[in-house]
Design goal:
Distance between the termini of chain B: 35 Å
Number of strands of chain B: 3
Distance between the termini of chain A: 46 Å
Mean pLDDT of chain B: 76
CATH architecture of the largest domain in chain A: Sandwich
Helix content of chain B: 55-70%
Low-confidence stretches of chain B: 25-29, 632-636, 688-733, 743-804
Shape of chain A: globular
Mean pLDDT of chain A: 81
Helix content of chain A: 10-25%
Strand content of chain A: 35-45%
Shape of chain B: elongated
Radius of gyration of chain B: 39 Å
Number of helices of chain A: 8
Oligomer: heterodimer
Number of helices of chain B: 41
CATH superfamily of the largest domain in chain A: Mu homology domain, subdomain B
Number of strands of chain A: 24
């Protein structure tokens, strides 16, 4: 049973609160209490919960996309995952509702009334109620913001009349009134899509995003890297603005990967026998949604040496024990050339020596020479960041040579590299969208604009 | 004609809107931020006048301000004072958004101003009869949100009326309203709500069933018999429910199956005559190879949930895994690929927020059968960004998955975590896992001890130090005689290394004190070494030296007693070397700064002085429990609270994973006739007659017809139902105007039959044919026998009526 919801900034100042009864505490009261109960709760953890009483718990989830913290106060649940999943759903709903990639504090403050309305619909009798975004959009019509208004100024009055008259389209006009005659729910085909939508410009975008999580271990004797962890975490985000009730077929080129059982949006109706992962057919919900979330497992394939071919465009290697006294190291980066990408962005390599004996030693990290970018020392003596140019063109081989002065061989061997970068146009797994087609349900004369985007990012990419 | 007029009005309407928008642009309130700024400037008095304004736009501005004040918890404005101004808008405002904002306000403040809130009830009740279903649903929600005792009978009355509403969202709201009533006054309303719930569970609309399940789960979790008639249907429609209700339903059905469905029977594959029921979770299976025979209903349930593994909701996945874990054989998790999905969820840091909880489930499943998750071992290796909870549970699982094949890999990983990780809980857990590894073989145990001893020389935090020492102690305690070498090395470390922290030294000295009982010979020398250095040592070390001296003295005494049992010679402390050393340590301790050390020294001194050796040995040589909680999962345990507590699970998780036992066959009736499908209440036919033709205007998409064909499927083929659905189809042909001009809505229900006759007399044959044509298009993909039957039926009727 949910009692209240809060959104705060990372510094725990209130941005939004929604109390479900008069007794629910305001955030100020809650925060004092939380600090008493769990004083050490820090922001480092993605989520945490604290017991406030026999039956009362507070859950806190750090937003993945924005600088916000989502909180809720609940009575003890039989299924402990529920509050967590709800907060996650809540955040996604907000993102999709406002059609944003990240929520700013200003956005939340400006839309406090709207968020309150959304929550009022999402929670009834202190339990989760309506969570379908299309229904929420219907119940709490969104006001388009300025940019969209400007874009649609071309729409003339007559055009508006045309499209309004037969269908009572929602979400198109600047303000949409809800007259009693509009009961689109009644002819709704599938629960996740509002029926008979009309758009003047039909668009459909597919974003495939992959996050690279790799932990490599370098065997210093043989000089070979072997994969400790290797996971590509991928998601297919879909954004559609389509007229009618179209059936979309998305065919993927999986590049030989077995995706196992990915998480699919409910529109895929994955419980039916005929769905295949590489040829999905579905009626898309309107607007933004996440179609699929998959992982490519490169750990079991590691034996065949296949894993490291899917590591993305950047390969890193290092050598230690160089120089006359053996306290030098060299980091070599190989940015593979690619036909699809001209450059990779924001390549940063964090150099860190983590031998425990270094804490009290007199070692000093120094850079002798580097071919690209610049090196930034940090307060911690054994850590530094090699920041390469913002756009590194593919096919280059940056090298950095440095030394850890006065280090013992044991200490220099504890070199640990963390790599972060992003690039567009190519995925590390090689998965591609071969085609997106609209099979049926759209008027013939409409040719929607289709776009596909590939983004690769790093998550945990470590070489040790 | 009517059409064109409506077109013109709508054109005017949009024109008006545009001008309004233009006005808004002019007043530079276009952007959200500037609107917010404007909104911030509204003074308390201004707010009151805005709320009482006749201009809808001003009221909206006022309500928005109220909403943002509620959301921002502004201490300067007491919103309660505006109660009357806000609530009166419920009647005056026509905009549903304003009404919703009032609902948000009422939800929070109604309790505080019961008398004023009651004033609003009248207008809320009025909107219960609104033609718009959303308004009706909202009105019901609002009414039930007002927590005033005298209002409950009215709520109950409205609920009873609304339960047969044609719109599913209203019926869903009924479920939630019932839940609110139940929570407020359980005793007086439980009897009223129970039959309502029964009806709601029988609803044909998945959305209503979803809400009804919330009510069932919250209010009547013990009344699982309500699910009898719906069991099979629910298994079918499970994917159509909302994600939350999916999880609730699976959890409810687990309990249901345990109570009302026959327990699976295992038959020995090698000997067909041997068979037994499936043992409770985590009890050993009786046969190595077996065949399982599962009740068809249970099978249906398990099959339908395994198809749901694609769900994006991790709570659903956990419920599925729990169902398979409890209701089927241990191999089911693997065979159904549920293990793969769980492994996917925890495999990368960003995938699920609640990895800690999922990992706890996996940990429990591992206790039943480690082989299920051993292929995924690498998934449990840590990422540097894992948070503490995740890391700790991953390490626990690693400890559970250790086997001869993977032990080398695990040990090297664990060592890495121990050296690198900065969080003491993680280090502690990794050390524990390492201790579990150490139990596997003698050589490994020695290797690990040695590695840990080397590690002790690094500067460690006190807590890490303690963990190191306790693991070393655990490994040495396991097999003390093997670790003589390690002890000697430790002694050397103590003597040669000067940079050891006081804590570390204390830990090692303590270890020697314990070691004295197994191998006495190395200990006295250590005491000798520390005797001259006593005053230079740190406080913790001094305390341990005192204790150590007492320990070996007591040990020596026991040894001498054993040796001298036959002879008469009595051991004399004053004479023995050790005794003298101990006395001098006690003497030195008398002048210590720390009163604890002085106190202990005095205690031990007087113990030995007065020759209370038995007490001394009781005190000093008591066997210490192993410092590491080790769990070997090689032998399955019963899943009881003890085991769960030992695994260190979260309290909530413990409760969630504690499972109900199977009920006994002879106590509860488990026959499958219980689950004979009972009637489904289909309100869609009501809706088709209620709504008008415009709702189906030329809508040729396959889904609306799919909906219809589904209805046809769920309907039992009693004659009157066929009749009504045929009737419903005829109504589609009418235009809105025709319909309303003919019949007042209220009469419709009673005079249904009469109307049909009238209607079909009036309507010409061709229009009805038209309807069938459109139907044919629609139902072409689902060629349902029943539907064609209906059509022919109604054809006949048509004929009859025409003849008449």
């Amino acid at each position: 049973m949910f009692l209240s919801f809060y959104i705060t900034s990372l510094k725990h100042s209130l941005v939004f609160q929604h109390l479900l009864s008069y007794e629910s505490p305001s955030f100020k009261a809650l925060w004092t209490k939380v600090q008493v109960v769990a004083p050490e709760s820090k922001n480092e953890e993605m989520w945490c919960k604290a017991d406030l009483g026999k039956n009362l718990q507070v859950y806190k989830v750090l937003s993945k996309s924005s600088d916000l913290i989502f909180w809720c106060l609940v009575t003890r649940q039989p299924n402990p995952l529920e509050p967590m999943v709800f907060l996650e759903t809540f955040e996604n709903t907000l993102l999709n509702y406002f059609d944003k990639d990240r929520l700013t504090i200003a956005k939340v403050i400006n839309n406090q009334d709207r968020i309150a309305l959304l929550l009022n619909c999402m929670v009834d009798a202190n339990e989760p109620a309506i969570l379908d975004l299309n229904k929420l959009k219907e119940m709490v019509p969104n006001r388009e913001d300025l940019a969209k208004v400007l874009n649609s100024t071309a729409t003339t009055l007559s055009h508006r009349m045309q499209i309004r008259e037969p269908s009572h389209t929602k979400g198109f006009g600047i303000t949409s009134t809800s007259s009693p005659a509009m009961k689109s729910a009644d002819l709704q085909a599938v629960p996740w899509r509002t029926a008979a939508l009309k758009y003047s410009n039909n668009e459909l975008y597919v974003d495939v995003i992959e996050k690279i999580h790799f932990v490599l271990h370098k065997n210093l004797k043989t000089g070979r890297l072997h994969t400790v962890r290797g996971i590509l975490e991928g998601s297919i985000d879909f954004r559609s603005q389509l007229t009618g009730d179209p059936v979309v077929a998305l065919s993927l080129n999986l590049a030989g990967h077995n995706l196992g059982i990915p998480a699919l949006h409910s529109c895929c109706q994955a419980h039916k026998e005929h769905q295949r992962i590489d040829e999905l057919q579905f009626i898309p919900p309107d607007g933004k949604f996440q179609l699929m979330k998959y992982t490519v497992d490169l750990e079991n394939a590691a034996a065949g040496g296949k894993s490291q071919t899917n590591m993305g465009l950047v390969a890193v290697d290092y050598e230690v024990g160089l120089g006359s006294v053996g306290d030098e190291f060299e980091i070599r980066v190989n940015i593979a050339s690619s036909q699809h990408t001209k450059h990779i962005d924001d390549l940063i390599i964090t150099v860190n020596f983590n031998a425990p004996s270094l804490v009290s030693s007199v070692c000093k990290l120094k850079v002798l020479r580097n071919t690209h970018g610049h090196f930034e020392n940090s307060v911690d003596i054994a850590t530094g960041r090699w920041i390469l140019d913002q756009h590194m063109s593919t096919g280059t081989l940056p090298v950095l040579r440095g030394c850890l002065e006065h280090a013992s061989p044991e200490q220099i061997k504890s070199l640990n590299l963390a790599v972060s970068f992003s690039n567009k146009g190519e995925l590390p797994s090689g998965i591609k969208v071969s085609s997106v087609d609209i099979i049926s349900g759209m008027p013939r004369n409409l040719k929607p604009f289709k776009g596909v985007k590939y983004i690769a990012k790093t998550g945990d990419f470590h070489l040790r | 004609m009517v059409d064109s007029i409506s077109r013109i009005t709508s054109a005017l309407e949009s024109a008006r809107e545009l001008t309004l928008d233009a006005a808004a642009v002019a007043s530079s309130r276009l952007g959200e931020t500037s609107y917010h700024r404007y909104s911030q400037k509204i003074t308390p008095e201004g707010l009151r006048s805005l709320l009482s304004s006749r201009n809808a736009r001003e009221v909206r501005d006022g309500m928005k301000r109220v909403a943002s004040l509620m959301a921002s918890d502004d201490p300067n404005v007491d919103l309660e004072l505006y109660f009357a101004d806000v609530v009166k808008n419920i009647g005056s405002s026509t905009d549903i958004k304003d009404k919703r904002l009032v609902a948000v306000y009422l939800l929070r403040f109604a309790e505080r101003q019961p008398s004023l809130a009651l004033l609003a009830v009248n207008s809320i009740q009025k909107s219960l009869a609104d033609p718009d279903s959303q308004t009706r649903a909202l009105a019901l929600k609002m009414l039930s949100d007002i927590k005033i005792a005298s209002l409950y009978p009215i709520v109950l009355h409205s609920v009873k009326k609304a339960v047969t509403d044609s719109a599913p969202e209203v019926r869903s709201a009924v479920c939630f309203a019932c839940l609110k009533l139940f929570r407020e006054q359980r005793d007086s309303y439980a009897d009223d709500i129970y039959p309502l719930l029964k009806g709601l569970l029988a609803d044909s609309d998945p959305a209503v069933v979803s809400s009804a399940l919330v009510l069932l789960k919250e209010a009547f979790p013990q009344h699982l018999e309500l699910l009898h008639g719906h069991f099979r249907r629910y298994c079918e429609i499970l994917p159509q429910l909302t994600q939350w209700s999916q999880a609730y339903l699976i959890d409810l059905l687990i309990d249901y199956c345990k109570t009302y469905v026959a327990r699976p029977v295992l038959t020995d594959a090698s000997d067909q005559s041997q068979s037994t029921v499936l043992p409770e979770v985590l009890n050993p299976l009786p046969y190595a190879k077996f065949n399982v025979s599962i009740d068809p209903d249970l099978n249906l349930f398990l099959n339908s949930i395994t198809k749901m593994l694609y769900s994006p909701n991790s709570a659903v996945i956990i419920s599925i895994s729990k169902a398979l874990f409890e209701l089927s054989t241990p191999t089911a998790l693997r065979d159904s690929k549920t293990a793969d999905v769980l492994a996917r969820l925890i495999s990368s840091p960003g995938l699920a927020n609640d990895q800690g909880a999922i990992l706890q489930c996996i940990l429990v499943y591992c206790t039943a059968d480690p082989t299920t998750f051993s292929p995924f071992l690498k998934k449990f290796f840590l990422f540097p960004s894992d948070d503490t909870d995740t890391a700790v549970y991953k390490l626990k699982i690693i400890a559970a998955l250790v086997s001869e094949l993977n032990i080398k890999q695990i040990v090297s990983e664990l060592k890495y975590y121990i050296t690198v990780d900065k969080r003491s809980r993680v280090v502690q857990e990794a050390l524990n896992a390492l201790a579990v590894c150490g139990q596997f073989s003698q050589s490994l145990s020695l290797h690990i001890t040695k590695w840990l001893l080397d590690g002790l020389e690094n500067p460690l935090s006190p807590s890490a130090m303690n963990s190191y020492v306790s693991v070393v102690r655990f490994l040495i305690q396991e097999n003390p005689s093997q670790h003589l070498g390690a002890m000697i090395q430790l002694a050397k470390t103590l003597q040669t290394r000067n940079n050891l922290s006081g804590n570390a030294k204390a830990g090692i000295i303590w270890l020697f004190g314990e070691f004295a009982t197994t191998n006495f010979s190395v200990c006295p020398d250590l005491l000798r070494v520390f005797l001259p250095r006593f005053s230079y040592e740190a406080k913790e070390t001094r305390l341990q030296i005192v204790l150590f001296a007492a320990k070996i003295l007591s040990c020596e005494h026991d040894l001498m007693i054993n040796k001298n049992k036959s002879s008469e010679g009595i051991h004399d402390i004053a004479e023995s070397r050790i005794g003298q050393m101990a006395q001098s340590i006690f003497y030195l301790a008398k002048f210590d700064d720390d009163f604890d050390i002085r106190d202990r020294a005095r205690l031990f001194h007087s113990l030995f002085d007065k020759e209370r050796f038995e007490i001394a040995s009781l005190l000093l040589q008591a066997p210490k429990p192993p410092s590491v909680t080790s769990y070997s999962f090689n032998t399955p345990h019963a899943l009881n609270t003890d085991l769960l507590a030992k695994m260190g699970l979260d309290h909530d998780m413990e409760e969630y994973l504690t499972c109900l036992p199977w009920s006994e066959e002879d106590v509860v009736d488990k026959s499958s006739t219980l689950r004979t499908p009972c009637d489904v209440k289909d309100y869609n036919r009501l809706k088709t007659s209620f709504s008008s033709a415009s709702f189906f205007h030329g809508d040729d998409d396959r889904h609306s017809t799919r909906g219809k064909s589904e209805n046809a499927k769920t309907m039992t083929d009693t004659s009157h139902r066929v009749f009504t659905s045929a009737q419903g189809r005829k109504y589609q042909l009418q235009s809105l105007d025709e319909f309303f001009s003919d019949l007042p809505t209220t009469e419709r229900k009673n005079g249904r039959k009469a109307q049909v006759q009238e209607e079909s007399d009036e309507e010409s044959g061709d229009s009805s044919q038209e309807s069938f044509e459109s139907d044919e298009y629609g139902s072409s993909e689902s060629s349902d026998n029943e539907q064609t039957d209906e059509e022919t039926d109604s054809d006949h009727e048509e004929d009859n009526l025409n003849k008449a």
